[in-house]
Specification:
Strand content: 15-25%
CATH class of the largest domain: Alpha Beta
Largest sheet: 4 strands, antiparallel
Number of helices: 5
CATH architecture of the largest domain: 2-Layer Sandwich
Order of helices and strands: HHEHEEHHE
Structural class: alpha+beta
Distance between the termini: 38 Å
Number of strands: 4
Radius of gyration: 28 Å
Number of domains: 2
CATH topology of the largest domain: Alpha-Beta Plaits
Shape: globular
């Protein structure tokens, strides 16, 4: 940062600095520090607050769509449920590992997760007719379509389809929820 930039920031901080006469460190008859050093004492919290606000502003998402999301259409959720012929722990772990190896990092992917059936969830509404699940959200239908034809996806299918008893795919367009206003507003 150039020196003139730093001076410009300091000039603006001088405009914001407040010397409080109620602060014992800022009383004029105190010999501990001058009014100039008292002003600096009050600049530190202001500068810290400005830096924190800048950091939040730079890392906050733009709008309510994740990075990589297309602005011209809805996101597409692609949920896949695999029922395996051999559903042993080793076979399930192998499929989860293959999902991670071949199906992560595709262009336009907003979310990826894979895992095993939560066997302890046994409510009447829980469908337990699968062993491994795959959850992807794409920025758009076009991103999904590109993923379907990608060589890594095709290799995943080729290497793993022999152990699939049944595959169910649920695709849906997502309707994002607007960001909630902070409490009290």
């Amino acid at each position: 940062m150039r020196a003139w930039t730093i001076r410009a920031i300091m000039v603006r901080l001088n405009d914001l600095a407040v010397v409080s006469r109620e602060c014992p460190r800022c009383l004029p008859d105190t010999t501990e520090h001058s009014e100039e050093s008292a002003t600096m004492t009050h600049k530190i919290p202001i500068l810290g607050g400005l830096l924190a606000a800048a950091a939040v502003a730079m890392t906050a998402p733009l709008g309510n769509r994740p990075t990589g999301a297309a602005a011209d259409g809805p996101q597409l959720a692609h949920m896949v449920y695999f029922k395996l012929k051999d559903n042993s722990g080793g076979a399930r772990a192998k499929l989860v590992a293959a999902c991670k190896l071949y199906l992560t990092g595709h262009e336009g992917t907003v979310y990826f997760a894979t895992g095993n059936l939560a066997g302890d969830m046994k409510r009447e509404v829980n469908d337990q007719d699968f062993d491994v699940s795959l959850h992807l959200v794409f920025a758009s239908k076009a991103a999904h379509d590109k993923y379907q034809d990608h060589p890594r996806h095709l290799k995943f299918v080729e290497e793993n389809k022999e152990n699939w008893e049944k595959v169910r795919v649920f695709d849906s367009y997502l309707s994002p929820v607007p960001a909630a206003a902070p409490a009290g507003e």
